[in-house]
Write a structure and sequence with these properties.
Elements lengths: L12 H8 L3 H13 L3 E4 L3 E4 L10 H9 L2 H22 L2 H20 L7 H12 L4 H16 L1 H7 L5 H19 L3 H21 L18 H4 L2
Antiparallel strand pairs: 1-2
């Protein structure tokens, strides 16, 4: 149980790391997970504050049902529609601080990839996508992203299918995708940012299709065929 009440400010990362005798990277990753789950809020220039765990940030039973009923390809399609538009808007809104956070996320992703350990953490991936959502400076878009990511993390079918993707080759490809997205955001190229994010999630979908059992009666990948990029940009 946390000794901090809703509305209270957490100590700085450095102090938490010293108290727990861990690195600041470990603390940062833990705080990102808490932010994704809606348990803390990062306020620019003010610190990190505890949120009310009994509030609307928690996944209720109806949310859980949505999460369990949706197939992995349905979730990916929703992410494509949401995150490609988030990336487009972020290209206009991103500040220098936002770009720094994205670069830090990619550095973390590279370190995780270099470890080459099976089942190694993918916190950098999550941190990168979250940083893009936060770069919109729109709290509703950030919350929608958090919710979609939480559904992904809790979805039984996604977990099972994603377990087959424990291959550094795929993760290197997606790291390359992330670098293309970042390059577009740095240039403030809205069209390129939108298409790069769309194509990234399309690449993820294609990899998942490779490991799908098309003979499974619950296979739903055929319902979510790819859209040509020119239609995405229409």
């Amino acid at each position: 149980k946390t000794p901090y009440n809703p509305g209270e400010r957490l100590p700085p990362e450095r102090e938490i790391a010293e108290m727990l005798d861990v690195t600041r990277t470990v603390v940062r990753e833990a705080l990102i997970m808490l932010e994704i789950k809606g348990l803390v809020e990062v306020r620019r220039g003010a610190g990190i504050y505890v949120l009310d765990s009994s509030g609307s940030h928690n996944t209720d039973s109806s949310d859980a049902n949505v999460c369990n009923d949706a197939g992995p390809f349905e979730l990916l399609q929703a992410r494509q529609l949401l995150e490609s538009n988030i990336a487009e808007f972020a290209a206009l809104q991103a500040t220098r601080e936002d770009i720094v956070k994205m670069r830090q996320a990619l550095q973390l992703e590279e370190r995780e990839l270099a470890s080459s350990a099976p089942g190694s953490s993918e916190s950098g991936d999550m941190q990168f996508h979250l940083a893009i959502a936060e770069a919109t400076h729109n709290s509703m878009l950030v919350e929608l992203f958090r919710q979609s990511w939480q559904w992904r993390e809790n979805n039984p079918m996604w977990i099972q299918l994603h377990s087959h993707l424990d291959d550094s080759l795929y993760r290197k490809e997606w790291l390359g995708d992330h670098k293309q997205i970042l390059a577009a955001l740095i240039k403030k190229d809205t069209r390129a940012a939108k298409l790069a994010m769309w194509q990234h999630l399309e690449n993820v979908k294609q990899r998942l299709l490779e490991f799908s059992n098309v003979d499974d009666i619950y296979f739903d990948g055929y319902l979510f065929d790819s859209w040509p990029l020119d239609k995405v940009d229409a």
